[in-house]
């Protein structure tokens, strides 16, 4: 795959999206990071918690599809009038390296600008070097690191923040 021409990005959730995104997270993180089944449960819980507070006005998903199949995603969760979290950023490995991650990330940041979110934060792990480089290149600063055992491994969880 060398182009994003045949890829569409939509900004609304439809039935099955959260289940499929849970599947993608579980599958990809098992293959790439050796995360155990607890990780997939964690993703399920975060999506469930999200559904309890979902606001079409303050929250936004950016879902990349090719031929009707989800191949990437990033979401913005608005927690207040001024603060939001970037969440669930994932690109199917087959579609990496073509600028899709950058495109999704840019759309997410544009949404934050439209909503006038002053602080955007995210959590990631030290396993996610490529994603972390995107965050840092876009001005996010790592503000906290915590080593803990989770998902079958000892990981360093990192918190990044961007003040606008």
TrEMBL record:
It holds the Pfam family Acetyltransf_1. The keyword ATP-binding does not apply. PROSITE patterns: GNAT. SUPFAM superfamilies: Acyl-CoA N-acyltransferases (Nat) (SSF55729). The keyword Transferase applies. Keywords: Transferase. Residues 7-161 form the N-acetyltransferase domain. It comes from the Bacteria. This is GNAT family N-acetyltransferase. It comes from Fusibacter ferrireducens. The lineage of its organism: Bacteria, Bacillati, Bacillota, Clostridia, Eubacteriales.
């Amino acid at each position: 795959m060398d182009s994003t021409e045949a890829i569409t990005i939509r900004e609304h959730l439809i039935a099955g999206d959260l289940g499929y995104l849970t599947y993608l997270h579980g599958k990809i993180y098992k293959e790439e990071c050796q995360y155990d089944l607890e990780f997939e449960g964690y993703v399920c819980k975060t999506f469930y918690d999200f559904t309890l507070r979902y606001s079409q006005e303050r929250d936004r998903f950016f879902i990349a599809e090719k031929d009707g199949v989800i191949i990437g995603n990033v979401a913005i969760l608005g927690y207040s009038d001024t603060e939001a979290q970037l969440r669930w950023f994932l690109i199917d490995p087959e579609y990496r390296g073509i600028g899709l991650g950058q495109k999704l990330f840019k759309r997410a940041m544009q949404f934050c600008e439209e909503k006038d979110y002053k602080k955007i934060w995210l959590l990631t792990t030290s396993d996610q070097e490529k994603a972390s480089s995107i965050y840092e290149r876009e001005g996010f600063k790592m503000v906290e690191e915590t080593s803990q055992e989770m998902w079958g491994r000892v990981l360093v969880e990192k918190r990044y923040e961007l003040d606008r």
